[in-house]
Amino acid sequence: MTTIQPAVAPTIELQDVVKVYRMGNIQVNALRGVSFSVTGGEFIAIMGASGSGKSTLMNIIGCLDLPTSGRYLLDGVDVRRLNDNQLAGIRNRKIGFVFQSFNLIPRSTAIHNVEMPLIYAGLSHQRRERAMAALDAVGLADRARHQPSELSGGQQQRVAIARALVTEPAILLADEPTGNLDSESSLEILRLLVELNDDGRTIVLITHENDIAAFAKRVVRLKDGLILEDHLQEQRVEVSA
Predict the structure, then answer these.
(1) Are 44 and 205 in contact (CB under 8 A)?
(2) Residue 122 forms part of a structural domain
(3) Nearest CA to 132 among 157, 166, 98?
(4) Which of 28, 58, 147, 175 has CA atoms 20 to 30 A from the CA of 201?
(5) Cα separation of 67 and 118, whole Å?
(6) Distance between CA atoms of 120 and 105, rounded to whole angstroms?
(7) Are 134 and 162 in contact (CB under 8 A)?
(8) Looking at residues 72-80, what average pLDDT do you find?
């Protein structure tokens, strides 16, 4: 299996981050002053029930949204000071995203789906080679010409992870990545995330399940937009086959 080497993992630091959504006269306080940091190469699980603020926090860490107040420093840079093009550049180069619903293009092959971030970035040199290397890294080089409908749920999620890896990001954000998978496929994906972390990549895993969070080295638990608990795990789940 090929290893896709990440760039040097940047530090993540949130300082008293508040996020308020306004819908007409209604104000929703999604985050109420969240502060914590993630060093390069950590595997952290952000946990919480629906409405706890974990998805909002992921969107901020992934530069998909900005804090209402407080500061989010990515490698020492305050992201609120960046323009839209600079934020897009960070999302394309430094951060890979994996979602519960895979978000693959149905009528495109696996390799074309993996190539998409490179196409959006305007890269043509060795694009196909990089996409094949990413598929090989997740054990799916032999499925490169298959469409999503010809793949199992676990294989589709591995294609989605390959797509996230193809730009060689230092941070991988995984939002409920096993939510649509059976237990065996879930275990395969979690083992893959552990391997990617062992290679030096920062993994931020969003989940509401304790048995999924058990694969992380550290757990941050949210409730009502506040950090309820932040602790290192004494022992992560055994990941050997």
Answers:
(1) yes
(2) yes
(3) 166
(4) 147
(5) 28
(6) 14
(7) yes
(8) 94
Mean pLDDT throughout 139-168?
96
Residue 146: domain span: 43-50+84-232
Cα dist. 75→40, 54, 89, 95, 179 in Å?
A: 9, 21, 14, 12, 30
Here the tokens at position 61 are 């860490």
**How many of the other CB atoms lie within 10 Å of CB of 8?**
10
Please answer whether residues 157 and 177 qualify as being in contact, where contact means their C-beta atoms are separated by less than 8 angstroms: yes
Do the bridges between strand 171-175 and strand 95-99 make them parallel or antiparallel, or are there none, so unpaired? parallel
Q: How far apart are the first and last CA of the chain?
A: 15
**Number of separate domains in the chain:** 1
pLDDT in tens, 126-148: 899 999 999 999 999 999 999 99
Each residue of 164-221: pLDDT tens digit?
A: 999 999 999 999 999 999 999 999 999 999 999 999 999 999 999 999 999 999 999 9
Which pLDDT score, from 0 to 100, does residue 23 have?
85
The CATH number of whichever domain residue 144 belongs to comes to: 3.40.50.300
More confident residue, 6 or 103: 103
In a domain, 74, yes or no: no
Average pLDDT of every residue of the chain: 92
Does residue 198 fall inside a structural domain?
yes
pLDDT at residue 241 is higher than 60: no
